[in-house]
């Protein structure tokens, strides 16, 4: 009569057969440089279009320079553009050659740079959304609707650039050395 239930010898043979039949590779936490490049390019496009919209927004003699929040948005966009342009160049080099520029310390610069720039972009977008809401509340048919909508579009694109940079920050965290 065969024993009912698992016996120590049956369990050991089942564990060995599971180990030998497992052909799936372990999950990798390394993100393809092409995905990073796409995120960097999307960030650049959003920031560039946002800058164009912001600087061309005007109503009669009113421009974005009349409002401190929009000047701050312009500064954050320029900072984001400069950083994203530099990182895009590094990522293009990485994709084309397969080698990263510099030493492992640049992984930390990528990670913390992405964090700082993403938060700077978020604060610029938040300040501008607040300013846009105040202008909407004050607009009583003064004809500034086009100006408000244009600055709102520029702010929305800056917020989208923040999201792309935040995702890039998450991906750059995967490249950091693991501590034991």
TrEMBL record:
Claim: Signal is one of the keywords in the record: no
Chain residue ranges for the region called Disordered: 1-26
Subcellular location: Cell membrane
Keywords: Cell membrane, Membrane, Transmembrane, Transmembrane helix
Gene Ontology cellular-component terms listed: plasma membrane
Keyword ATP-binding on entry: no
Residues in Casparian strip membrane protein domain copies: 34-164
Membrane topology: Multi-pass membrane protein
Compositionally skewed regions (Polar residues) per UniProt: 7-25
Superkingdom of the source species: Eukaryota
Complex formation: Homodimer and heterodimers.
Name under which the protein is recorded: CASP-like protein
Annotated source species: Olea europaea subsp. europaea
């Amino acid at each position: 009569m065969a024993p009912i239930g698992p016996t120590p010898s049956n369990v050991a043979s089942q564990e060995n057969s599971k180990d030998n039949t497992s052909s799936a590779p372990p999950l990798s936490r390394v993100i393809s440089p092409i995905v990073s490049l796409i995120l960097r390019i999307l960030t650049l496009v959003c920031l560039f279009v946002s800058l164009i919209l912001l600087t061309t927004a005007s109503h009669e003699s009113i421009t974005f320079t009349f409002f401190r929040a929009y000047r701050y948005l312009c500064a954050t966009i320029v900072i984001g553009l400069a950083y994203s342009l530099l990182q895009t160049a590094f990522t293009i080099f990485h994709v084309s050659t397969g080698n990263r520029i510099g030493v492992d310390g640049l992984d930390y610069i990528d990670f913390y740079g992405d964090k700082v720039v993403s938060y700077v972009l978020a604060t610029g977008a938040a300040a501008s959304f607040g300013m846009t809401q105040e202008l909407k509340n004050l607009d009583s048919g003064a004809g500034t609707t086009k100006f408000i909508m244009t600055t709102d579009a520029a702010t929305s694109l800056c917020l989208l650039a923040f999201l792309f940079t935040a995702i890039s920050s998450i991906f750059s965290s995967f490249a950091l050395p693991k501590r034991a």
